[in-house]
Specification:
This protein has 201 residues and is of the alpha/beta class. It is built from seven helices and nine strands; from the N terminus they run E-H-E-E-H-E-E-H-E-H-E-H-E-H-E-H. Helix 1 packs across helix 2 and helix 1 packs across helix 7. Keywords: ATP-binding, Biotin biosynthesis, Cytoplasm, Ligase, Magnesium, Metal-binding, Nucleotide-binding.
């Protein structure tokens, strides 16, 4: 099975929560190749899914910034070719850093990791004023590059009009809508994971 690469229309869109739900739905393992800043997203995965196997980051950078800037601050050179998938026979969920065109270096972007890992994209779109434009720009980039997309997950206060027009133009399969919650209980997580499991078939 191809690994899933979780990316988003921007930063703080909900990639870590979606990654946790994918891991729970599929019994998959989790890997974030590049972590910038603390707390680490892997810690959130462990909190939400204590049973999930979490692979160590290839790069753990202290500065909460774009990977290229965080790496430069520590004298590190990021290169997609240096990143190798962790050894596993299980399904794998890979979480990107920030949005798709966040730079790794002067040549490569986060989204360049998709073909490098032979992955299939799960796109996260959080809903806010302007998110239609950002989502359709993300769709155009994925389409131009011909990357395989498993589907889209909406995150935030429901907005049926926004969802409908995004699905109309992209043709993506809607995998899930995650509402805003004061607290994500185990019961809620399992409900979302069950829906996701069904949608992924």
């Amino acid at each position: 099975m191809r690994p899933y690469f979780v990316t988003a229309i921007g930063t703080d869109s909900g990639k870590t929560l979606v990654s946790a739900l994918l891991c729970r739905a599929l019994g998959a393992e989790y890997w974030k190749p590049i972590q910038c800043g603390i707390p680490a997203d892997a810690a959130t995965i462990r909190q939400l899914n204590p049973q999930t196997r979490v692979h160590p980051e290839a790069y753990f950078l202290q500065l909460p910034a774009s990977p290229h800037a965080a790496a430069r601050a520590e004298g590190v050179q990021l290169d997609a070719r240096s990143l190798q998938l962790p050894a596993t026979d299980a399904s794998l969920v890979i979480e990107g850093a920030g949005g798709m065109l966040v730079p790794l270096n002067d040549r490569e972007f986060i989204i360049d990791l998709v073909p490098h890992f032979g992955a299939e994209v799960v796109l996260v779109a959080n809903l806010y004023l302007g998110s239609i434009n950002h989502t359709l720009l993300s769709w155009q980039l994925l389409q131009q590059r011909g990357y395989p997309v498993r589907g889209i997950i909406f995150n935030g206060t429901p907005n049926p009009e926004s969802e409908q027009i995004i699905l109309h133009h992209t043709g993506y399969k809607k995998l899930l809508s995650i509402d805003q919650h004061e607290q994500l209980t185990p019961h809620l997580l399992e409900q979302y994971a069950a829906t996701l499991r069904t949608q992924l078939g």
